[in-house]
Amino acid sequence: MKRSIKMLLILAAVFLLQGCWDKRELTDLALISALGVDKGENTKYEATFQVVNPISVTGGLQGGQGGDRPPITTITVPGNNLTEISRHASTSISRELYYSHTNLVVVDEDLAKDEGLVKILDILDRDTNFRTTSTIVIAHGAKAKDLIKALTPVDKIPANKINKTLQFTEQQLGEHFKTSIQDVLKCITSQSRYPVISSFKLTGIKKKAPKMESIQSTDPAAQIEANDLAVFKEGKLADWLEGQNARSVLWLRNKVRQSYLTIDLMNKKDSLTFDVIRQNTKVKAKLKNNQPAISVYVNMEGDVGETTVPVLLDDPKVLNEIEKKASDKLKKELQDAVKLVQQRKTDVLQFGDVVYRRYPEVWKKIEHQWADKYFPDLDVEITVNAYVRRTGLRSNPGNLKGS
């Protein structure tokens, strides 16, 4: 009896499990590594697809067959929506567009200003083949297709170059950070609704960026570089943050991993570098005179990176002075950034979310006036504590010759 039941189960499996009914041959797929979206001239949009050339990318494993070919091919298709564009792309390429490997979306600066991101992100979020973990960046001072077409010398796939640049500059500098489509969608639906997105620009001779001779030189004719932070208000590009202000905003959002500060010692400007190796920022809401207020606490540790003055780094008094000046320097930078975004009435610091989580009943009363009335006059107290972790192998720089 048991043997009969087993035989029936095996026969049922034969008929029910028919194998790869939805298989796709690799030779029939065009692997899209990046997607660029610009404003169209005669249509609403113009999308550029960055398609990987498998032979060129793996040429080193195939006896150098792809050495004379670019690692990518780009296709630009106009249309009034991305679904239409994807369908019409079939007339330009002999393979099915495959988005599962797409890890970058580049949006045109003008499109982000005029229309915003909501419609574009809605389409991408609905597509089951598109990953919402893909990085999104803004093309600053160039078209999205210019960045998509540009070849890069170190990383064969340009999309990987942009992603890696964001990854390492976030770790080392703190002025940029990776933002995914999912992150932007969450921020747009949050209480503050002011996402910030890193931007990239194209430097050098832009016309040579898509050409192979540009990356065959030790000094490429054109380069893709990380640029400012784009600030969005009500889904549209509203402002830019650059340099120190960009870093301070990310610091207040606890997005900075490592960075540096230069301080003055012995009446010499920027004579010591405090190399921040770790930091932690906590933001808390409170009520002050029945009005919401914010307290920011920053704890950071760092090493003495370099010094141009002969200070005794084994002296506790000197270390205390370094820690105090580093704390004061960062506090001043953070205060300046808070004042700047308050003047522009853009809560990119997400203080509104902090107030909402701590005092939801209070938030219901002030939500509609937050951006114009409460946030610009918000009382923000900042406390910074710095600690010198290491001073390096030499504790007495005055012993160096020539100092």
TrEMBL record:
Gene Ontology biological-process annotations: spore germination
The alphabetical list of record keywords is: Germination, Lipoprotein, Membrane, Palmitate, Signal
Q: Show where the Spore germination protein N-terminal domain sits.
A: 22-200
Where is it predominantly found? membrane
Record-stated family: Belongs to the GerABKC lipoprotein family.
Q: Which residues form the Spore germination GerAC-like C-terminal domain?
A: 228-392
Please state where this protein is localized.
Membrane
Q: Does the keyword Signal apply?
A: yes
Gene Ontology CC terms? membrane
Could you tell me what this protein is called?
Ger(X)C family spore germination protein
As for membrane topology, the entry says:
Lipid-anchor
